[in-house]
Amino acid sequence: MKNIVLLFFSVFCFVVGFSQSKLSTPYETIYTHLHNLEDNNYYPQKAALAINPQLLKGENAINAAIKLKEILNGKGIYILYNKIPDETDYTDSTSKKQQYTLAIAEPGIYVEKVGNNWYYSQETIENIPKLYKEVFPLGTSIFSSILPDSIGNKKTFLLKNWQWLGIGLIILAGFFMRLLANYISKVLSKYIDKFALAKTADREKLIHEFLKALNLFLIIFVIRILVPSLQLAPKFSALLIKGFNILLIFLGAFVFRRLVFIGLDLVNKYTNRSKSRLDDQLLPIAKNLFTILIGLIAFSLALKQLNVNLTAIIAGVSIGGLAIALASQDTVKNFIGSITILFDHPFELGDYIILSGTEGTVEKVGMRATRIRTPNQSLAYIPNGDLSNMIIDNYGLRLYRRWDLTLGVEYGTSTAKIEDFCKRITQMLEELDYIADNRSLVRLNSLGSSSINIFCMIFIDVKTYNLELESKHNILLKIIDLANELGIGFAFPTQTLHLLNNKSEKTS
């Protein structure tokens, strides 16, 4: 009799509680759904009240409520009840609609007001099959169905026996996945060796790091797929799954970054064949750009997993956007200047250039500044934003190196010798390989105060300043030998002093 009274009282309390369930605010609806599907408070019929009866009824509504709870757990979404609005006429500030999204990471799951009550939206109900398959591709009973209920549902150290078995199987799956990943790496390595993609030590290191990161990514990915099927406690499951998600995001970013680096290194292999040496600077700049871009994307995805509202952050940043823009305008200007230099090619690495107040050999073009080695062997860093607006006199792009040389011979040298001297110099220049054909001029130019001047316009065809100096050295030696052979002397500034001696005459 006592047991019958207790049973009747329990049923009465359940019916009363069932009838008093309220759905007039987002908080009441979500609480009714999730609270009544907890292990120590499992009333799926009551949880199904959060499903709009116009969309689903009976067993369909119960199944939808259960699956929706499992989807939230499987995605690592843990709902804090104190964060849910408890207002009858709550309106979303972004959409301006009477709806509330449970988590930023999953905007497709939300409740909306229908009449006087709040229910899960039609979009949410329609997305349940797709989301369930996405979260549990192998189903939720993959581990729980292995052991009989009498054994599997017994708890040992806070977890059920089938959950412990699932953990062991996941560890085993990770071990086999590692073996499979190593096999895939060996196969890829054979193809890499076959096509000679890893000829350099740097590229071989990049490929090795890529394959190592890919192996780890695949192992963690498989574990992440299996973990939701353990159906752990919501709070712990949310923490664990978010941890795996964030780890996968950064591992994926690292794998993609290494893959991009390998591609850029292969592109650099072909740019090295071009005549332009400035192309070599594209590789480090492109690496920095891709690193920043991939890092920003990975960081934003990680923040999304932590339910951080990126829209609110961007809106907050935009308030100080003007100050940031003013502070970073030089950085942006220099970056655009570096892009302009790389595409316009006003100079090459190794070129000797003359700017306003600075000259030297170009050593490196960076994202912010260009490094120039001055004749004093010091380093000058010119901001690219300023450099792109300067007048650049590029000695490295000269077709020929013009040399204007004046030879002063002594007065008293016969015109025949001067004529022969000019012809012999012209002939000597024509015989030299590093002198441009039919461009050099040797002519009697002027009569100076202390010498007869012969002007030589010589065009030297060499690539570097060092070879130019060496060529001038050889030409001057040959000119001196010709002068000695012809008996011609080079004049130097002289001064002749004339003294006038006037004798005074005496008269008597």
Features:
single chain, 508 residues, alpha+beta, five-stranded antiparallel beta sheet, three-stranded antiparallel beta sheet, 15 helices, 15 strands, 52% helix, 13% strand
What is the mean pLDDT? 81
Helix percent band: 40-55%
Supply the number of helical segments.
15
Strand percentage lies at 5-15%
Q: Give Rg in angstroms.
A: 43 Å
User: Secondary-structure element order, as H and E?
Assistant: HHEEHHEEEHHEEHHHHHHEEEEHEEHEEH
Helix/strand layout:
Elements lengths: L1 H18 L6 H10 L1 E2 L2 E2 L1 H4 L10 H17 L24 E3 L8 E5 L2 E4 L1 H14 L13 H4 L2 E2 L2 E2 H34 L6 H26 L7 H38 L10 H24 L4 H10 L1 H24 L7 E3 L4 E7 L3 E5 L5 E5 H4 L5 E2 L6 E9 L5 H17 L9 E7 L4 E9 L4 H22 L22
Antiparallel strand pairs: 1-2, 3-4, 4-5, 6-7, 8-9, 8-12, 9-10, 10-11, 13-15, 14-15
